[in-house]
Amino acid sequence: MKKSLIALSSLLMLGGTAHAQKVAFEEYDLPNGLHVILHNDPSAPVVITSVMYHVGSKDENPERTGFAHFFEHLLFEGTENIKRGEWFKIVTSNGGTNNANTSEDRTYYFEVFPSNNTELGLWMESERLMHPVINQIGVDTQNEVVKEEKRLRVDNQPYGQLIAEVKKNMFKNHPYRWAPIGSMAHLDAATLEEFQAFNKKFYTPNNAVLVVAGQIDMAQTKAWIEKYFGPIPRGVEIKKETFTEAPITEPIKARYEDPNIQKEMVVAAYRTPSMKTRDARVLDMISTYLSNGKSSKLYKKIVDDKKMALQVGAFNYTQEDYGQYILYGMPQGENTSADLIREIDEEIVKMQNELISEKDFQKLQNIYESNYVDSNASVEGVAENLATFYLLYGDVNLINTEIEIFRSITREEIRDIAKKYLNPNQRLILDYVPAKDKAQN
């Protein structure tokens, strides 16, 4: 009883903290279609200016993969009013930082400045959108940068091809079947005109959301937004193609040889629904239950108690259209990949036939309350969440209400969703092994 009271007390404290951190925001549209979200946080004298574009690797031509990620680099080359090589100098000389990242579904750019440089951040992002310089020297330069990134982060990274191999084997029609880094051969073959056409199609105000968060004067910020972004012409409306995959009804077997590893890994992956669905959020909780930390079910059983694996885990790789629920393990000693899959399946079958304990359920609730607070603990986190919930989920206020979805998930739902998606006939088994020549060295 005492432990239950302590757990309940912790939950109430976290719930109170989460409620206190409700994110206030204002949103509106410019006539050119740019969606604007403003969040004033006077607690620290910083401001983040960010733009998220609804373009990712899934929007690419199958013969020109890697374009979305390439633009993440290319659009730092300069603009008509920012000379080549000056972008980062301007940012750092004004006490700021900046970065960008790309996924299958979107591309995100941002600058963080002291709040007295709000106007500078807005001008720079408007320049990126209105006056980018896309020429051959920039393309050639960034081509080499991207190739080096691929060598470091993918080609020479142990287990660096894991997600790509899962996606390649689980998707036959959907563009999720290739990785955002794309093909270097495709980038080499692309013409300057193809890069310029990609920019013209996707980098438009009506395909983007601008978020300004931090210590800002709302009226002044709106005036600057109108000044810098208002004159940008609306782009041609983009017609997004819908890709569907037939359900997986029989096990898929695959093998990949990685020259960068010495220990094999076995992967079990299941295709799951859009991250916008309630089911996807239940699967998030299932992955947390199975493999969040060393006290989780899989780690405690397979690594600690039975010592059958060096590592074991699970995660829900969520995306706008589909997701992949991925389990993995690295067998040790005389144990085989089949042994690990059998042990993992035993835990899944338990979830499918029995309710998880009240104690484990309470632990999950505490974790998600804490995650909610942490996700909005900085203006950078708030800005990206606001942009993501608008662009990919279609509901900005999920920044405040998504936690209610997690709070409402029941033990019965966890059981039923495990039963619905995590079955042997619905999955890929990938043997991720050392390359033969490497193994013999």
Indicate the topology.
Elements: H1 2-20, E1 26-29, E2 35-40, E3 46-53, H2 67-74, H3 87-93, E4 97-102, E5 107-114, H4 118-130, H5 136-155, H6 162-170, H7 184-189, H8 192-202, E6 208-214, H9 218-229, E7 252-258, E8 265-273, H10 278-291, H11 297-305, E9 309-317, E10 322-331, H12 337-353, H13 358-375, H14 379-393, H15 398-408, H16 411-421, E11 427-434, H17 436-440
Parallel strand pairs: 2-6, 7-11
Antiparallel strand pairs: 1-2, 3-5, 3-6, 4-5, 8-10, 8-11, 9-10
Helix pairs in contact: 1-13, 4-9, 10-16, 12-16
Task: Name some characteristics of this structure.
globular, disordered N terminus, six-stranded mixed sheet, Cytochrome Bc1 Complex, Chain A, domain 1, 441 residues, single chain, five-stranded mixed sheet
Short summary:
This protein has helices at residues 2-20, 67-74, 87-93, 118-130, 136-155, 162-170, 184-189, 192-202, 218-229, 278-291, 297-305, 337-353, 358-375, 379-393, 398-408, 411-421, 436-440; strands spanning 26-29, 35-40, 46-53, 97-102, 107-114, 208-214, 252-258, 265-273, 309-317, 322-331, 427-434. With 441 residues, the protein is α+β, with helices and mostly antiparallel strands.
CATH-assigned homologous superfamily of the largest domain: Metalloenzyme, LuxS/M16 peptidase-like
Q: What is the strand tally?
A: 11
**Approximate strand percentage:** 15-25%
Tell me the helix content: 40-55%
CATH architecture of the largest domain: 2-Layer Sandwich
Task: Please give the domain count.
Answer: 2
Write down the Rg: 23 Å
Weakly predicted, low-confidence segments: 1-20
Spatially, the strands of the biggest sheet line up as 1-2-6-3-5-4
Mean pLDDT: 93
The SSE order reads: HEEEHHEEHHHHHEHEEHHEEHHHHHEH
Protein name: Insulinase family protein
InterPro entries: Metalloenz_LuxS/M16, Pept_M16_N, Peptidase_M16, Peptidase_M16_C
Organism: Flavobacterium cheonhonense
Keywords: Hydrolase, Metalloprotease, Protease, Signal, Zinc
